[in-house]
């Protein structure tokens, strides 16, 4: 007996998809009408011809990559240590990792300015380099809930205790174990968190604007105030870039962890024992 086609479920799915797709199509169609009476990519050409666009995109990409690097260096050892040594503290660490979702970014950035302003011991906001460092720190804080969840789930899929014991039995230090054993086995989880971090940081507006940094988020808002068609083109490009990140994240997330346990050659006795 053949199953009946789920008409109601399909209808709900179509309505939900139309809720997102129809505005996107309308925005794309509007972005093509910069030239009166014809469809063209003039708005996109205008955006790419702007030196300001290339500058803010490069600045945001650099800051986002720095945030990814800093986040990985902080989150991976923390999640590893909590799972290996203090598993009872996991609920506390998970709660702390969710704090950036609770605290509004405007409160966060005003706290940064207050702590690292001209009257503090470490006045980061007094120089451009210091303000950029503060911006990267803000990106890292905003991405912690996503990076920590991705890394923690990746570690849950492997036996880190056994991997650690195997590495230490071959003479590896704890740092070498994290770098050459744990990192390769959770690389798909790290990439997932990295793509999420990049997507969040690239379009962030509040912290970037209040710190007066030339990034993509404030640039998009400013373009929306001054022009009509270019902001629509920027919105479509940002949407496409986000979806590319999501597709790459899914591709890395569905890959199996690395099969190679250790990057160095095991002793001959160990190899014979395995065979």
Alpha-beta content class: mainly alpha
User: Would you state the CATH class?
Assistant: Mainly Alpha
Low-confidence stretches: 257-275
User: What Rg, in angstroms, do the CA atoms define?
Assistant: 24 Å
Structural account:
The chain is mostly helical and 275 residues long. The protein has a single domain (15-262), classed as MetI-like (MetI-like fold). It has helices at residues 7-31, 42-49, 51-84, 90-97, 99-102, 105-115, 128-156, 160-169, 174-185, 187-202, 206-210, 216-226, 229-253, 268-274. 27% of the residues are buried. Belongs to the binding-protein-dependent transport system permease family.
Helices and strands in order, then pairings?
Elements: H1 7-31, H2 42-49, H3 51-84, H4 90-97, H5 99-102, H6 105-115, H7 128-156, H8 160-169, H9 174-185, H10 187-202, H11 206-210, H12 216-226, H13 229-253, H14 268-274
Domain ABC transmembrane type-1: 53-249
Transmembrane segments: 7-32, 52-80, 92-117, 129-148, 189-211, 231-253
InterPro entries: MetI-like (IPR000515), MetI-like_sf (IPR035906)
Brief summary of the model shown:
The protein has 275 residues and is an all-alpha fold. It contains 14 helices and no strands.
């Amino acid at each position: 007996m053949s199953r009946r086609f789920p008409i109601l479920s399909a209808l709900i799915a179509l309505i939900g998809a139309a809720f997102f797709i129809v505005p996107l199509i309308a925005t794309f169609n509007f972005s093509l009408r910069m030239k009166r009476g014809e469809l063209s990519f003039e708005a996109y050409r205008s955006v790419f011809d702007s030196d300001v666009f290339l500058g803010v995109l490069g600045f945001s990409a650099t800051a986002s990559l720095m945030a990814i690097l800093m986040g990985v260096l902080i989150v991976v050892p923390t999640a590893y240590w909590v799972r290996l040594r203090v598993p009872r503290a996991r609920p506390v660490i998970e709660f702390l990792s969710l704090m950036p979702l609770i605290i509004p970014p405007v409160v966060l950035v005003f706290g940064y300015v207050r702590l690292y302003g001209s009257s503090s011991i470490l006045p980061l906001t007094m120089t451009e380099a210091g303000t950029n460092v503060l911006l990267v720190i803000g990106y890292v804080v905003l991405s912690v809930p996503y990076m920590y969840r991705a890394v923690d789930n990746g570690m849950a899929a492997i036996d880190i205790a056994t991997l650690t014991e195997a590495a230490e039995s071959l003479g590896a230090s704890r740092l070498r174990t994290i770098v050459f054993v744990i990192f390769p086995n959770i690389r798909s989880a790290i990439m997932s968190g990295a793509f999420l971090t990049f997507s969040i940081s690239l379009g962030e507006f509040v912290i970037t604007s209040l710190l007066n940094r030339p990034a993509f988020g404030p640039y998009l808002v400013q373009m929306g105030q001054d022009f009509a068609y270019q902001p629509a083109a920027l919105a479509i490009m940002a949407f496409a870039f986000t979806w590319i990140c999501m597709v790459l994240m899914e591709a890395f997330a569905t890959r199996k962890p690395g099969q190679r346990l250790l990057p160095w050659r095991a002793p001959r006795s160990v190899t014979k024992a395995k065979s």
